[in-house]
Amino acid sequence: MLKSAILFSHRKIQFHIFTEDSLKPEFDKQLRQWPDSYTKKFEHRIYPITFSVGNPQEWKKLFKPCAAQRLFLPVILKDVDSLLYVDTDVLFLRPVDDIWKLLRHFNATQLAAMAPEHEIPKIGWYSRFARHPFYGSAGVNSGVMLMNLTRIRSAQFKNSIIPTGLAWEDMLYPLYQKYKNAITWGDQDLLNIIFYFNPECLYVFPCQWNYRPDHCMYGSNCKEAEREGVSVLHGNRGVYHDDKQPTFKALYEAIRDFPFQDNLFQSMYYPLQLKFLETVHTLCGRIPQVFLKQIEKTMKRAYEKHVIIQVGPNQMH
Question: Which domains does the chain have, with CATH numbers?
Answer without folding.
Answer: 1-207 (3.90.550.10), 232-310 (no CATH)
